[in-house]
Specification:
Blueprint: E1 7-11, H1 16-27, E2 31-36, H2 44-49, E3 53-56, H3 61-65, E4 69-72, H4 80-89, E5 93-95, H5 97-103, E6 110-114, H6 119-132, H7 151-155, E7 163-166, H8 175-183, E8 187-190, H9 204-212, E9 220-224, H10 228-231, E10 240-246, E11 270-276, E12 279-283, E13 295-298, E14 304-309, E15 312-317, H11 323-338, H12 343-351, E16 361-364, E17 368-372, H13 377-390, E18 397-401, H14 408-418, E19 424-427, H15 430-438, E20 444-447, H16 464-477, E21 483-487, H17 489-499
Parallel strand pairs: 1-2, 1-4, 2-3, 4-5, 6-7, 6-8, 8-9, 9-10, 10-13, 17-21, 18-19, 18-21, 19-20
Antiparallel strand pairs: 11-12, 13-14, 14-15, 16-17
Helix pairs in contact: 6-11, 6-12, 11-12, 13-14, 14-15, 16-17
Length: 504
C-alpha cells in the first residue's frame, strides 16, 4: 500500500479502531476514504486534518465500486447483512484489522508502559521529553488512554520517530502479551504493581502474571527497584534491565506503609523504609533484596529531587508535587535513557511537563480546588500524602469521594480508611457511602442525598447529579483557605463542566 493511487475505503472509519486504521493506511501511502453512517463522530476533524476523504451518513455505492480494498472495522465484521451488501457492490478485497496490522509495518522504536498506577503520567512525560529532544511521537487522538485492545497496536504504526504506548489490562491472560507483540514493543516499562485493580475472580497472582507478560516481549526493560513485585521479574529474563528508585528523602511523609512477600521464597519482606505504600527499601532472609538503581533520585522533597544517571546529575523541579510524581519522572527518565536521549533533554522534558488533565488538576473558582483521577487505594494514598504535606496548618482538606473501586467493597473501604487524614469527607457515590458506613470515621462526614442511589458503570462510580450535589456542598463548606479535593473517575468526567458556573 505504498502507491498513492491505491484506493481504500474504511467502513466504520469514524469509530475508535476504524479511524486509526484509516490514518495508518493514509500514512502508508493509500488514497483513503472513510465511509460511515455516523455524521457527528469526534474523529471527523482528525480525519479531515490528515487529508482523509469522508463519506458520512451513508455507504456510497459509487465509491465502493472504484476501490482496491475495503477495510471493515472490527465492530462491523459480524454484520452479515452489511458484508453481503459490500460483496454485491464490489469485487475488491475485504480485509480486517489484523490484516492491516500485518500489511503496515512498525518501523520505529516502541516503548510500552504498563503497571497499576502512573502509566498515563509516565507516558505523557516521556513523550514530552522526546518532543523536547526533537522526536515526533505518534498520537491516537482519542478521548481515552491505552488499553489491551487494538489502539496501541495501530498507534505504533502511525507516522512518527518513536512510539510511546500506554498498555493496560482487564486482568485476563495474554492481553498485555498480545498487545505488546502486535505493537512491536522493544522497551517495556513497569511502573508498579499493587492490589488495587483486582476484580471478579482474579487474584493478586493472576494480576501479577498479566503484568509480567511484557517481560517476555520487550528486549529492554525498565523496572521500579523500590517495588519488590516488579523487581522480582528480573529473575524471569536475561534481557537488559534498567532499575530506577529513590535513594533518600529530605522530608517526613505519611507513607501509608504496606508489606509484600518475597517473590523468591514467599516470606514477608523486611522494610527499612517505606516511601509510598509497598514501595521502599526491602530485603529477605533468603537473599532477595532491593536492586541498586541505575536511575536515581537523591535529596527528594515534595516537588524536587536530584536526578542521577551514570555520571550525569541535575536538580529537578517538578510542576506536579508528590512522591508518586517523583516515581513517574524516574520511570520516564529511565525510558528516555534507554532510548539514548540526551541528558539535558531529559531534564528539560521533566521540568517543563505540565501534567495530565485530571491528574492533580487545579481549578480556579475563587476557592482552592483540585481534581484527581485517583480511583484506587494506591492512587488515593499518593494524592492524600501530597496534600497533607503541602497544605498550611490553617487550612482544611475537604475531599469529595466519587470513587467506586475496581476491587469492590474491599477497595472502597480501604479508600475510606485512607481518607481519615482529611478534615471533611463528602460522600458522593453509592459505593463510597456503603464503605463509609462500614467503618468508624471520626472526622466530619457528609452523606449526600443522591448517594443513596447506585450509579456504578465500570469505575465510573458517581453520576453527574451526584457529583454536582457533592460539589455544591463542598464549595459551600469551604473557606478561601481550605482545599477541596475531588477524587474518582466521575469527578474527573463531570467536575469541569459543573464548576464552570462557579467561575468569576
Amino acid at each position: 500500500m505504498k502507491k498513492q493511487d491505491f484506493k481504500v475505503v474504511v467502513i466504520g472509519g469514524c469509530g475508535t479502531v476504524g479511524s486509526l486504521m484509516a490514518r495508518v493506511l493514509k500514512d502508508n501511502g493509500a488514497d483513503v476514504t472513510v465511509s460511515d453512517l455516523s455524521t457527528d463522530s469526534p474523529q471527523v476533524n482528525v480525519l479531515k486534518e490528515e487529508g482523509i476523504k469522508l463519506n458520512l451518513g451513508e455507504h456510497d455505492e459509487n465509491i465502493l465500486k472504484n476501490v482496491d480494498t475495503v477495510v471493515v472495522a472490527p465492530s462491523l465484521l459480524k454484520n452479515s447483512k452489511l458484508i453481503g451488501k459490500i460483496k454485491s457492490i464490489t469485487d475488491a478485497d475485504i480485509i480486517s484489522a489484523d490484516e492491516v496490522l500485518t500489511t503496515c509495518k512498525v518501523g520505529k522504536p516502541v516503548v510500552g508502559i504498563t503497571g497499576t498506577n502512573g502509566k498515563t503520567t509516565t507516558t505523557w512525560m516521556l513523550k514530552n521529553i522526546l518532543n523536547i529532544g526533537g522526536y515526533k511521537t505518534p498520537e491516537h487522538k482519542l478521548k481515552m488512554q491505552g488499553n489491551t485492545e487494538l489502539i496501541p497496536s495501530f498507534q505504533a504504526r502511525l507516522d512518527g520517530d518513536i512510539a510511546v504506548l500506554e498498555i493496560g489490562t482487564h486482568g485476563n491472560p495474554n492481553e498485555i502479551k498480545n498487545c505488546a507483540i502486535k505493537s512491536k514493543v522493544n522497551i517495556g516499562i513497569i511502573t508498579n504493581i499493587s492490589k488495587d485493580h483486582l476484580s471478579g475472580s482474579h487474584n493478586f497472582q493472576d494480576y501479577i502474571d498479566c503484568k509480567r507478560e511484557i517481560v517476555g516481549v520487550a528486549n529492554c526493560l525498565v523496572f521500579n527497584a523500590d517495588d519488590p513485585v516488579v523487581a522480582g521479574f528480573s529473575n524471569d529474563t536475561s534481557h537488559k534491565i534498567l532499575f530506577y528508585g529513590i535513594e533518600d528523602l529530605n522530608f517526613e511523609i505519611e507513607a501509608y506503609p504496606e508489606v509484600r512477600t518475597c517473590p523468591v521464597c514467599g516470606k514477608e519482606l523486611e522494610y527499612s523504609i517505606h516511601y509510598l505504600g509497598h514501595l521502599g527499601v526491602y530485603k529477605c532472609s533468603c537473599g532477595f533484596k532491593r536492586r541498586e538503581p541505575d536511575v536515581k533520585a537523591f535529596d527528594v522533597k515534595n516537588n524536587s529531587f536530584k536526578l542521577v544517571i551514570g555520571s550525569n546529575e541535575a536538580k529537578i523541579k517538578l510542576k506536579q508535587a508528590g512522591i508518586h510524581n517523583v516515581y513517574n519522572a524516574l520511570a520516564a527518565a529511565s525510558g528516555a535513557s534507554a532510548l539514548g536521549v540526551d541528558f539535558n533533554d531529559i531534564v528539560n522534558g521533566i521540568e517543563t511537563f505540565e501534567g495530565v488533565k485530571g491528574r492533580f488538576q487545579k481549578v480556579d473558582i475563587g476557592k482552592k480546588l483540585i481534581i484527581d483521577y485517583a480511583h484506587n487505594p494506591a492512587g488515593v494514598k499518593a494524592i492524600i500524602q501530597t496534600l497533607i504535606r503541602e497544605k498550611p496548618d490553617t487550612s482544611r482538606l475537604i475531599v469529595v469521594n466519587t470513587v467506586s473501586s475496581e476491587s469492590g467493597i474491599n477497595g472502597d473501604i480501604e479508600i475510606a480508611k485512607i481518607l481519615k487524614d482529611a478534615d471533611v469527607i463528602i460522600v458522593a457515590s453509592n459505593a463510597s457511602r456503603k464503605a463509609s458506613s462500614e467503618i468508624n470515621v471520626n472526622n466530619h462526614v457528609i452523606f449526600t442525598e443522591s448517594s443513596k442511589k447506585g450509579s456504578k458503570m465500570g469505575t465510573l462510580g458517581a453520576s453527574k447529579a451526584q457529583v454536582e450535589e457533592s460539589l455544591n456542598l463542598a464549595i459551600n463548606e469551604a473557606t478561601k483557605e481550605d482545599i477541596i479535593l475531588i477524587i474518582g473517575e466521575g469527578g474527573v468526567k463531570y467536575s469541569t463542566q459543573i464548576l464552570g458556573k462557579f467561575k468569576n
